[in-house]
TrEMBL record:
The keyword Amino-acid biosynthesis does not apply. It is found in: Cytoplasm. Binds 1 [4Fe-4S] cluster. The cluster is coordinated with 3 cysteines and an exchangeable S-adenosyl-L-methionine. The active site is at 91 (proton acceptor), 344 (s-methylcysteine intermediate). This is Dual-specificity RNA methyltransferase RlmN.
Amino acid sequence: MTANLLDFDLEGLAAFCERLGEKRFRATQLFRWIHQKGASDFEQMTDLAKSLREKLGASAHVQGLKVVSRHDSADGTVKWLFDVGAGDVIETVFIPEADRGTLCISSQAGCAVGCRFCSTGHQGFSRNLTTGEIVSQLWFAEHFLRQHLGRQERVISNVVMMGMGEPLQNYSQLVPALKVMLDDHGYGLSRRRVTVSTSGVVPMIDRLAKDCPVALAVSLHAPQDALRDNLVPLNKKYPIAELLEACARYQTAAPRDFITFEYCMLDGVNDQPEHAAQLVSLMKTHAIKGLSCKFNLIPFNPFPASGLKRSDMPQVSAFAKILMDAGIVTTVRKTRGDDIDAACGQLAGDVQDRTGVDQRMAAQRQGMLGGIKVVVAKGTNV
Ligand code: SAH
Ligand code: SF4
């Protein structure tokens, strides 16, 4: 088996080049070809000596993920399903905005945390993605979009690890992938434009602060342990006070940054004025310990098995007002791509989606077909 070079950060690629008896700086050239130009064929890499290209041809390859399908939303959001083998499918979503292009990346096939309001959680855990599988989502999307949109320059300016899976339960594969995103010879994203979202794996928050302090988003969803235990089962292991202390420690590594707290608004469950008031006092207590935060209220995206309902907009606004009146910066997340099931928590990677037919039928049932283009690329090897 030859090595897939998408599995390496620059340091790893340099070590690989050394093993081939090559100078480490060759790795920089190779890395730029792969990530900045999207090349996968060593013969294209004309500034590398022929002898090196031959060695690479014999010992390495650059292999992205297999695209199952692409779904284009009326609002410009694009969702891809990728086949990662053994019946597992993962999802990646591109969200264009006026001033940025955000890619939402998966870190696992399924998820072991099992949050009640998340369809990935309901699906259960299948396996960790490799560094190469995480990086491939960006590699593929960036170069596909450049070609598709006829752009020479960078299309993706932000990455959020908010697709399927709990990134901090796949730490060893995650960190090199983050390094590829940040590397000036790779995607050159600033660390404030790469966000790891976590349900609260406390020890790994501390490790990330040392290894790769990118922006941190924490999925809080409840102001007290009894409720959070029920919504995010990991809370039984790492309760709220411990989690917020880890967040405050994280900020000593990145002092000028905020931690973003995500809060999924569930009708009658966690969206009452008293929940907002409890959040305010919780945040005040921890502000003294150095925590500065922002809140992002996410309208719940329902799916049948959850038995939960989305809070209505007046409820969300009233909740936001209590936080804002207390001086907490609060935003309400716009739902994007819900006509293609690309919104938060709808990423189930259902194998049924492979044909695109189920999605079309679901959309038809909901009378939403207008504007959806389902592009099926079954078995395409990218
Ligand atoms: N596992 C990580 C990252 C993936 S989930 C985490 O939990 O943070 C990304 C975000 O989507 C999280 O904030 C999660 O709480 C939110 N989410 C999950 N299911 C959702 C749903 N059905 N509706 C709205 N947001 C949801
Ligand atoms: Fe896993 Fe995040 Fe979904 Fe919870 S919300 S089940 S941690 S992907």
